[in-house]
Every structure is written in structure tokens, then in C-alpha cells.
Amino acid sequence: MKPFIIAGALSAAAVLLPQTALAVDAEAAQKLTRAEGCLRCHGIDRGKDGPAYKEVAAKHRGKPDAEAKLTQHLSSGHKVKFPDGHEEDHKIPKTKDQEQIRNVIQWILSL
Question: Please, which residues have CB within 8 angstroms of residue 102's CB and are 6 or more apart in sequence?
């Protein structure tokens, strides 16, 4: 089999597996969220200027498009509203490594 066929089959299998079946590197996800400044606005257990990651997980739990929606949220830079009413563009992660971003999203969804 050609390598691209195998890679495609593995990618398709990963999409079909339940989120809990995919390995999440929680330590790497937390390290990246600290480095990217995500934890300035989001807490794990409690909200700050943004919702707590556990709230995000609860909102998206069981939804088949959860990962896609969060990926779009992180990559679009769309406006977000803060508790005091002002709006800012959501920060886009500096890393271009999609696997690192995917790991963060899967970690959030696993909470």
C-alpha cells in the first residue's frame, strides 16, 4: 500500500473514533495553553474573562461537530464579548502545528 493511502485510512479511522478513544496529552495541552496565553482569559474549573474549559466541554459534550467548531473558534479570530461588554478579536494561536491545536481541543473536550 502506498503511504498516503495508509495515512488517509488512519485519518478516517481517527475521525470515526469517539473522542475518548483518542489519546490526549494533557500535559502538552496545558503547556501550550500557558505559552499561548489562553489561561489569562480561561480557567480550567472557573471562568475568567472567557468561560472555563469545563464549561466549554459541557456545552459541546456529545456533539459530533464539537472539535470542528472549536477549531474554527481558535483559527478565525472572530470577536468575543467580555464581561464588561467590550469586544475584542479572539487571539489566534501562534503555533501552526495543527496536531498541537487538535490536542488542546481534545483535552478541553475531555474535561
Answer: 67, 71
